[in-house]
From TrEMBL:
<dbReference type="GO" id="GO:0005886">
    <property type="term" value="C:plasma membrane"/>
</dbReference>
<keyword id="KW-1003">Cell membrane</keyword>
<comment type="similarity">
    <text>Belongs to the binding-protein-dependent transport system permease family. LivHM subfamily.</text>
</comment>
<dbReference type="GO" id="GO:0022857">
    <property type="term" value="F:transmembrane transporter activity"/>
</dbReference>
<feature type="transmembrane region" description="Helical">
    <location>
        <begin position="92"/>
        <end position="114"/>
    </location>
</feature>
<keyword id="KW-0472">Membrane</keyword>
<keyword id="KW-0812">Transmembrane</keyword>
<feature type="transmembrane region" description="Helical">
    <location>
        <begin position="180"/>
        <end position="201"/>
    </location>
</feature>
<dbReference type="GO" id="GO:0006865">
    <property type="term" value="P:amino acid transport"/>
</dbReference>
<protein>
    <recommendedName>
        <fullName>Branched-chain amino acid ABC transporter permease</fullName>
    </recommendedName>
</protein>
<keyword id="KW-1133">Transmembrane helix</keyword>
<feature type="transmembrane region" description="Helical">
    <location>
        <begin position="63"/>
        <end position="80"/>
    </location>
</feature>
<dbReference type="Pfam" id="PF02653">
    <property type="entry name" value="BPD_transp_2"/>
</dbReference>
<feature type="transmembrane region" description="Helical">
    <location>
        <begin position="241"/>
        <end position="258"/>
    </location>
</feature>
<keyword id="KW-0813">Transport</keyword>
<feature type="transmembrane region" description="Helical">
    <location>
        <begin position="264"/>
        <end position="280"/>
    </location>
</feature>
<feature type="transmembrane region" description="Helical">
    <location>
        <begin position="12"/>
        <end position="35"/>
    </location>
</feature>
Length: 295
């Protein structure tokens, strides 16, 4: 029973990280209809920024986190205004090709700058653990879960209780009506894309302290985020959270009880669930497309 409890805790921690990363993909796809194939590479950019801040400037990742989030928003906003906006409301293949190219370029740049050697952002608390009720969790992973929860709550508040958030929701639900009432759809797209990239930069920052990362990890993160978005329902934070926890728990259980092939089975299981979801509930666990956090 103790081992099972520990495995479930590990799954919850992993699910929290997946929820944060997948929410960025879900938001962008829900508002703009763009499936960002460079999503995983953006996670890695955040991880490498945090690693560089710690390695060269001695800045703790948690201290650097707000700055990295701001950089993520700026990067996403510029990327949308210069490139992504040109493929919005165009045939989906154009967006897939564009973001695939961006991801390939990002991967090549990261490989050139940092090589293929796995990195871990080492902090003063890297070797510490948190213990409660007989369970233990490494401090960096506990902070990853806590950080993901805080950022997701702030995102929920932004989408539901601010003028910008209401504009984003209006644009996702009915673009024509949003234009009629004076909402600048182009500006909304840029803001939504910026928020989506900021979320994954944050996810990368939290990931880097908890486990190793390398330039070729991006596609796997993109695939997992896509599986979670399909399972949870596009643009629905509640569905994304449930699906992420489900995937995290499955991956942790398989990795623990089938150690030789557990990780590979976790990825395969995620996509088996995607196929089942597409057959049984095409709109995902939480229903139709909507950029609402708590419904």
């Amino acid at each position: 029973m103790g081992q099972l409890s520990q495995v479930l805790l590990d799954g919850i921690v992993l699910g929290g990280f997946y929820a944060l990363v997948a929410q960025g993909l879900s938001l962008v796809f829900g508002v703009m209809g763009v499936l960002n194939l460079a999503h995983g590479e953006c996670v890695l950019i955040g991880a490498y920024l945090a690693w560089a801040a710690q390695q060269y400037l001695g800045i703790d990742p948690l201290v650097a986190l707000p700055v990295i989030i701001a950089l993520g928003f700026g990067f996403g906003w510029v990327l949308c205004r210069t490139l992504v906006i040109r493929v919005v409301e165009r045939p989906p293949l154009m967006a897939l090709l564009l973001t695939f190219g961006i991801g390939a370029i990002a991967q090549g740049v990261l490989l050139k700058l940092f090589s293929s050697t796995p990195r871990v952002t080492t902090t003063s608390y890297s070797a510490e653990v948190v213990s409660f009720f007989g369970l233990t969790i490494p401090t960096p992973r506990a902070l990853m879960l806590l950080g993901a929860i805080v950022i997701l709550v702030l995102t929920w508040a932004l989408l539901n209780h601010t003028r910008v958030g209401r504009s984003i929701q209006a644009a996702s639900q009915n673009k024509a009506a949003a234009r009629v009432v004076g909402i600048d759809i182009t500006a909304v797209y840029a803001i939504a894309f910026g928020i989506g990239i900021a979320l994954v930069f944050a996810g990368g920052t939290l990931l880097g302290s908890a486990q190793g990362f390398y330039p070729f990890l991006g596609p796997l993160l993109t695939m997992k985020a896509f599986a979670i978005v399909v399972l949870g329902g596009v643009g629905r934070m509640s569905g994304t959270l449930v699906a992420a926890m489900f995937i995290g728990l499955i991956e942790a259980i398989l990795a623990s009880y089938v150690p030789s092939v557990g990780t590979g089975l976790g990825v395969a299981a995620a996509f088996v669930l995607v196929v089942i979801a597409l057959v049984v509930r095409p709109n995902g666990i939480s229903g139709g497309k909507r950029v609402m956090a708590g419904v």
